[in-house]
Each structure stands twice: as structure tokens, then as C-alpha cells.
Design brief:
The complex is a heterodimer of chains A (421) and B (138). By secondary structure, chain A is α/β, with parallel strands linked by helices. Chain A is 37% helix and 17% strand. In chain A, the strands form two sheets. Chain A has a nine-stranded mixed β-sheet with strand order 3-2-4-7-1-8-11-10-9, with helices on both faces. Chain A has a two-stranded antiparallel ribbon with strand order 5-6. In chain A, α8 packs across α12. Chain B contains two helices and eight strands; from the N terminus they run αββββαββββ. Chain B has 138 residues and is mostly beta strands. Chain B starts with 7 loop residues before the first helix and ends with a strand. Classes of the chains: A alpha/beta (421), B mainly beta (138). β5 of chain A pairs antiparallel with β4 of chain B.
């Protein structure tokens, strides 16, 4: 059961890096991780001698499938000049890199190491959409695959359950998408950098140039209800409810709390960590909640002594729009059946009471699955240190942020709470 | 009494024979579908097979337009979507299965809560032939 266990020795993030996310024909996993690691080295305020890093954890879901190369640990250790130090690959589907951080935290807390590199990488775009769909479906529960469920299909079924329970519809999912697309143009590393309005205008312009009828949409929702603009994928999941196929890498430098000030005057402390597991659609206790989230949240809140209202902003795993609504209820930011109202009222926008996914989320930033969890931490690191540029949450001092990462169809969930002191 | 070992392999063989089977804990009576090796309730390890009636109601569903390769081989695709969903059986457990006899092109016509009944469909030919479980409106 989730308790109130503290970690034995504090851990802080003192550096972070992230590659651009996108579909890159001319970059492979090593190039992407090198991009992230270069930024990490530059981000350590008082300088880093990489040779001080004692061990590495690297999250990767399935480059085995995507680029036919397994055993990514030693490849990354070699790339970063850290061989022959210990390196371990972690796998938890789309939560793989948060598990790398978790192992790093435990290694430091145990006293085994003081300075650890943790990150993730995934290279998906060399495969066709059908192949990626098949590759990702390896992380559903076996019974779901047999019944013809795809990833979007599982989340479509959850969305329908949510609609039925609360009497709402697709317009509430659109509010999530529109908000993510508002943040995206402000994130220079994001895969998609356009608002929905930008995309509508582009579509109109294309029609004009081709001499085709120009669509007349009154607003974003009218466009999103138009199947020519937003076709169904797994009803009610449509194209704009789904995150893209992406390549990317991310990493953070974890150190023992007592050493943090040797690296920076502005470290970000890990004050709570939780992880849970979940069963498939046939056995999960609720179809409008992830049991793994509830477990992870109970552990992380217990460890930190913090309550949901203490979290000022969060990055959550919006692989599909409905997931964002479910997560922010599971984590206690909003009551059950309240998230869709809060989103409709703008509470999760950057200016709102509880900004969610200021990075643009997986929907716009991109979702190279093994890199996502640490990329979420990268955003929290940037926001807490006031380095998020144009997308910096306005008008308030930030001192507590969190990340929630989901693997598979809820089989693995993590919740991590960070504090700036 | 059915003597096959409690396992997914046995479960799938039963499906091929047109039987929907779960496991029942001999200690506390709890019924599971798909079958479980151990009882979650009491950690009893003495499980027996129980045939399920295959009647229940539709708990949630989705209509899939972007289809995986193995469904494309059955002729499904963007212009010919299929419905799959979660059914809650009258005995209590849930089943994930394809939902047939509904209009997948018109997803809003499909109603959560409607009564459904299991069917066993034969697809493929020769060595490819297999039976899959689906549910239809009762």
C-alpha cells in the first residue's frame, strides 16, 4: 500500500537537456541523444566534468522494433564518453525514461552513487504509420489486441465511458487540444508549432490556391467537428486527439542533495515519487480513471507531504486528449467529473489557476515514447527556474511542479513532484 | 468436470470450440474472466473452470477507422470501420471483444448499456481458419 515513506537521501536535478522533437530523416538515436546531452552539459551553472558521472540509466521502449537495434545502454554510455561505467536500460512503454530517473533516484538515495545521468530516447519515424501502430500495440494488454483494439481505440473506449458517465461530448476533448496548440508555438523544440487557427488558415489558403471550395468554419470547434479537417481514428478519438509519431531524446543530471550546490545555486529537488501498475480494460476498477495513477499519486503525495493544491503546474501524459482529463482528476488537481469543466473555463491554460502541459504536451511537443517522461521533467526544470522563455507561466513565483507519465494503456503510471527552494 | 489446466492457452482453445470460459475460486467463489491462476480476493490457488453464459451489457466501445494490419486483412479500413468494446457479463466479469451487428460508420447510434450476447465467428480458410469471440445486440 502507498505509505508515507521518505527517500533515505535527498536527490536534486542540477542539469537537463532535450533534443528537438520531430520526424528526422537525417538524425538517428545517437544524434538525438548527443543533442540532449550537449544541452545538459551546458545547463550545469557551475560547470560539469562529465567524468564525474558514476552511472547511467536510459529509458527506451522499443528501438528494437523501430530501428532493429536493442541494448541501448552501452551505446549511450559510449556516445557520452561514459563507458565503461555501469549503464542500465529501463522499459515501461511510454513511461520508460521516468523509470530511468526512478532507478537513478534509488541509486543515489541508497548511497551507491552520488552523480547519475538518466534519460531516454526513441526513434520512431523510420517506420510507416501502420508499423508504428503495430509496434505501440505491443504495449496494450494481450486481450485488447485480440479484440481489435489499437492504442487510440483503448483511449476512445475510455472517452466514451467518460462521455456517458458525465453527459459530455467531443467539444470537451477539443478544449484540451486547442489549449495544447496555444502553447506549442511558444516551444521552439516542439514538433508542431501551430495553433488550430493557424492550421485552419493554412487549409483555407491551400483550397484557394487549388481553386477548391474554401471551408467556412466559424471557430476552432467547427473545424475540429469537420471530418475533412479532423478525420476519425478510433471514434471518438480523431486526428487532433492523438499525439504524433516522433523521434527525440532527453536527459537529466541527478545528484545527491548535499552536493547539489556544487553544481548550481538553483537546483530542483525531487521531493516525491510514486509509481503504480494497472490492468487492462477487462479488469481495471474504473473506465474513467487509471488505478496506476492513483497508486503513484498516493505514494508521491505521501513522500512529499504535499497535497494536490500545493502543485502549481504539471506536465501530464496527454497521448490522447481524454487522457489529460483523466490524469488531472486522478492526481487530485480537479474532482472526479470536474476536469472537463475546469478545462472549458481555461483553468489549465498558462494564465489559469493550474497550468497543464505548458510545453504543448505530447500532442504538440511530440512523443518519442522512451524520451517523454524526462522531457516532461525538462519542462518543469525550465519553468521552475524561470527559463521557459515565451511560454513561462506568467505572474507568479513557481516553486512546486510535477510530472505524470503513463506507459501502455495505463499499465505503468508515475507521478513525480519537484521543488525549488 | 473440465480438467484442462487453468491458462490462457486453454482459454483460447475453448474459444475455438465456441465456449466462453472463466475461472472460479473454489475457496471463495469469485469468478474471473479471462481466467486467473490465483484468486485476487482470497489468494486461493484452487481454481476450476466455469462456463459463462455470454450475456451482458455494453459498457463502452470505440469504432476503429485506422486499423491494424491483421484487421485490414479482414477487409476493414477507413471506409469500413469496425466496433470493439467492453462488455460486462451477467456473472460480473468484463470481456473485451468485437461488437458486431451495429453501425460502426455511425458510432453515435451505438448505445452504452444495451444488452448483448456472445457469438463465435469463424474466419479464414484452411490452416488460417480460426474462431473469434464477438458480441451482438441481444
Amino acid at each position: 500500500m502507498a505509505g508515507k515513506r521518505k527517500i533515505g537521501r535527498g536527490v536534486a536535478i542540477v542539469g537537463a537537456g532535450m533534443s528537438n522533437f520531430g520526424m528526422f530523416r537525417d538524425k538517428d538515436s545517437k544524434d538525438l541523444f548527443a543533442e540532449a546531452f550537449r544541452e545538459l552539459m551546458d545547463s550545469v551553472d557551475k560547470g560539469l566534468d562529465p567524468r564525474d558521472i558514476q552511472a547511467v540509466w536510459i529509458g527506451n521502449f522499443s528501438n528494437d522494433f523501430f530501428v532493429h537495434q536493442a541494448h541501448w545502454g552501452p551505446i549511450i554510455a559510449d556516445l557520452t564518453g561514459l563507458a565503461p561505467r555501469a549503464v542500465t536500460r529501463t522499459e515501461g512503454a511510454c513511461a520508460s525514461s521516468t523509470l530511468a530517473v526512478r532507478d537513478g533516484i534509488m541509486a543515489i538515495a541508497s548511497g551507491m552513487y552520488d552523480i547519475v545521468l538518466a534519460g531516454g530516447v526513441e526513434e520512431m519515424s523510420k517506420r510507416t504509420t501502420e508499423e508504428v501502430t503495430e509496434g505501440l500495440a505491443l504495449a496494450t494488454s494481450p486481450y485488447e489486441g485480440e479484440a481489435g483494439f489499437t492504442f487510440p481505440g483503448v483511449f476512445g473506449a475510455l472517452a466514451n465511458a467518460y462521455f456517458h458517465k458525465y453527459g459530455v461530448g467531443r467539444e470537451h476533448l477539443m478544449n484540451v487540444t486547442i489549449k495544447s496548440h496555444e502553447n506549442a508555438p511558444l516551444n521552439p523544440k516542439a514538433q508542431f508549432k501551430h495553433t488550430i487557427r493557424d492550421l485552419m488558415e493554412a487549409r483555407k489558403e491551400k483550397a484557394r490556391k487549388k481553386g477548391l471550395p474554401v471551408p467556412e468554419w466559424a471557430d476552432e470547434k467547427e473545424a475540429l467537428f469537420d471530418p475533412a479537417f479532423n478525420p476519425p481514428v478510433a471514434w471518438p478519438m480523431h486526428l487532433f486527439d492523438c499525439c504524433p509519431i516522433s523521434d527525440g531524446a532527453s536527459c537529466v543530471l541527478l545528484v545527491a542533495e548535499e552536493l547539489a550546490k556544487n553544481f548550481t545555486n538553483d537546483p530542483i529537488y525531487v521531493v516525491g515519487f510514486g509509481q503504480g501498475s494497472g490492468r487492462g480494460l477487462h479488469a481495471c476498477p474504473s473506465l474513467t480513471s487509471f488505478e496506476a495513477n492513483r497508486q503513484a499519486a498516493a505514494e508521491a503525495y505521501g513522500m512529499s507531504g504535499l497535497k494536490p493544491r500545493d502543485i502549481q503546474f504539471a506536465e501530464v501524459h496527454d497521448c490522447f486528449s481524454i487522457a489529460e482529463l483523466i490524469h488531472i482528476e486522478d492526481l487530485g488537481f480537479f474532482g472526479e467529473g470536474e476536469a472537463y469543466k475546469a478545462v472549458a473555463e481555461g483553468e489549465t491554460r498558462r494564465e489559469g489557476r493550474m497550468p497543464i502541459n505548458t510545453s504543448g504536451g505530447l500532442k504538440c511537443k511530440g512523443h518519442p515514447v522512451g524520451a517523454t517522461g524526462v522531457a516532461q521533467m525538462y519542462e518543469v526544470w525550465k519553468q521552475l527556474r524561470g527559463e521557459a522563455g515565451e511560454r513561462q507561466i506568467p505572474g507568479r513565483d513557481l516553486y512546486v511542479g510535477a510530472t505524470q507519465n503513463l506507459g501502455g494503456t495505463g499499465g505503468t503510471c508515475t507521478f513525480t513532484i519537484f521543488e525549488r527552494r | 468436470m473440465e480438467e484442462r489446466p487453468i491458462s490462457d492457452v486453454s482459454y483460447r482453445k475453448f474459444i475455438q470450440e465456441g465456449k466462453l470460459m472463466g475461472s472460479r475460486c473454489r475457496k471463495c467463489g469469485k469468478v474471473y474472466h479471462p481466467p486467473r491462476h490465483f484468486c485476487e480476493e482470497c489468494y486461493g490457488t484452487d481454481m476450476e473452470w466455469q462456463e459463462l453464459e455470454g450475456e451482458g451489457e455494453l459498457t463502452t466501445y470505440t469504432c476503429i477507422f485506422v486499423v491494424p494490419p491483421y484487421m485490414a486483412r479482414e477487409g476493414y479500413g477507413r471506409d469500413n470501420p469496425y466496433c470493439t468494446g467492453v462488455v460486462t457479463l451477467s456473472e460480473g466479469p468484463r470481456v473485451v471483444a468485437r461488437i458486431e451487428g451495429v453501425d460502426a460508420r455511425n458510432p453515435e447510434s451505438i448505445k452504452i448499456g444495451m444488452p448483448v450476447k456472445a457469438v463465435f465467428n469463424r474466419v479464414g480458410e484452411g490452416e488460417e481458419a480460426r474462431t473469434y469471440l464477438a458480441f451482438r445486440p441481444a
